[in-house]
Amino acid sequence: MRRFLPPIVLSMLAIALAGCVTPRVSEIAERPAAKGAFVSAGSPAFAPAEPSGAWWRLYADPKLDSLVAEALEHNRDLAAAEATLEQVRASLSEARASYLPTTQVTTGYTRGRLNPQMAPAGADRDYEIYQAGANLNYEVDLFGRVRRAVAAARADRDAAAAAVDLVRLTVASETARAYADTCAANVQISVANRSIELQSRTAGLTRTLLDTGRGAGLDVARAEAALQNTRASLPPLRAQRDGALFRLAALTGKTPAEADSVVRDCAKIPQLTAAIPVGDGAGLLGRRPDIRQAERQLDAATARAGVAAAALFPTVTLGGTWSSMGLEPGDLGESAGVSFTAGPLISWNFPNVFAARARMKAASAGADVALARFDQTMLGALRDTETALSTYANELDRRTALAQARDRASDAVRLSQLRFDQGADSFLTLLDTQRTLVQAEAALAQSDAQVTANQVAVFQALGGGWQTP
Fold first, then answer.
1. Which of 200, 273, 359, 457 is the most exposed place for a label (fewest CB within 10 A)?
2. Domain containing 390 — which CATH number?
């Protein structure tokens, strides 16, 4: 005689198979190209060692060190991220409490009067009743609903911790950038002032020659026009310096009025004297907090898909109640007034599982979204790093060329001045060489500022600086 499995068993097996949650694995993280050396790190400006956590100390600038430390202590965005982390930690504690039984204790007092028709003749119609009770329920996590809910909450906590690290990285980078921008603006102002001094001497010379009858009014006009053009570059530079200083104040938790006066007078752009340690792709993927955040968000989404799948299975709860009732407080607990219940409770939304299946499908799609974002975060990190490395290396080459151009322009001004004094060159030639020198010095100062900005971008792309110094 053939035996067939009961339909209910077949249904349970089908649901169990449908309820399986497939772990999401990133294919990009396993690519050798993602974990190898950076393609843009061939310049002598880079070293293969792993980058330092407190990378700003490579500048050997005590003021920069103190500013970053101050920002990491007082920045309000960082304070908000840390408070958010505490919220998520509390949610994890709440989720873990599901492992424990839930209890409830009740007490009650009732005073009443019986209907005359219900009370025995001559009996006291007034009465008092004292009650006490306790309930206990414990969910038996047979199908992993609680375990997966806790796993999701734990992943949320880890993602929030990675978000704090990301804010730390951003704050350290922006603080170094604002400090460098302030110093760079002052250096450019100094270069402009030197150019103004040179052009002022030239303009004064042309006026003297004109007064003595040996010059021309056209030469005076040209010299003064060049001088005023250079003076016109000062207000934007001062505005850049003030803007950077105000950014720095906000990053360190201060108002603009409380901006550091020492930083305002900074006259030297922080520069590195050694090659930047960059490591490789594998180190980057393990170090960047945004990648870790995206990975933990993927873990949370996968765990929530498991929670949704567990809803297809029965919920088993062990429960018990105890209650006592008496006419006097001392009667509570007496056997005559005590009652209790105990036993399991099984609840199952079967066969109507369509809503649970829809929730499971939505949660599974959410895990797919998290996986795609995780992959894109890794690709973006590699792109940002390669771009930062290439930009920095090429700016170094540009600065070298600009320094040589500035030197040649300085030689040209010196020779042109000698020839002009001897009457061999026209004033227009002298003025042109001075204009070239002014432009070359301004371009070199801008490149110096850009080099430091690119260095900070490299360190930020490499993902260092979120670790506690």
1. 273
2. 1.20.1600.10
Cβ(113)–Cβ(125) below 8 Å:
yes
CA dist list (Å): 273 to 184, 267, 469: 17, 18, 21
Neighbours of 440 (CB within 10 A): 21
108 to 105, 131, 134, 321, 323: CA distances (angstroms): 10, 5, 12, 16, 11
- Contact at 8 Å (CB) between 139 and 95? no
Residue 419 phi/psi, 5-degree rounding, is: -70, -35
CA distance 409 to 53: 41
Residue 138 counted as domain residue: no
Which strands, in side-by-side order, build the sheet including 126-140?
102-113, 126-140, 315-326, 338-347
**pTM of the predicted model as reported, rounded to 2 decimal places:** 0.83
**Overall domain count for the chain:** 1
CA atoms of 176 and 183, how far apart (whole Å): 11
Q: Identify any residues that bridge with 108 across adjacent strands, giving them in sequence order.
A: 131
Tell me the C-alpha distance between 174 and 171, whole Å: 5
Strand intervals (E) in 200-350: 276-277, 315-326, 338-347
Are 405 and 442 within 8 A, CB to CB? no
The predicted-structure confidence for 123-182, as pLDDT tens digits, reads as follows 777 778 889 999 999 888 888 889 999 999 999 999 999 999 999 999 999 999 999 999
pLDDT in tens, 66-96: 999 999 999 999 999 999 999 999 999 989 9
* Residue 13 included in any domain: no
Based on its alpha-carbon atoms, the radius of gyration of the chain, rounded to whole angstroms, reads 38
Spatial CB neighbours of 405, under 8 Å, sequence gap ≥ 6? 440, 443, 444
- CA dihedral over 211, 213, 214, 216, signed as positive or negative: positive
Q: Which helix (H) or strand (E) holds 128?
A: strand 126-140
Instruction: Determine, yes or no, domain membership for 130.
Output: no
Range of the domain at 155: 25-104+143-314+354-462
The residue with tokens 């070359």 is: 440
From the list 412, 288, 311, 289, the residue with the least C-alpha distance to 358 is: 311
Query: Which residues neighbour 68 within 8 Å (Cβ) at sequence distance 6 or greater?
Result: 54, 56, 172, 175, 176
What single-letter amino acid sits at 303?
Answer: A
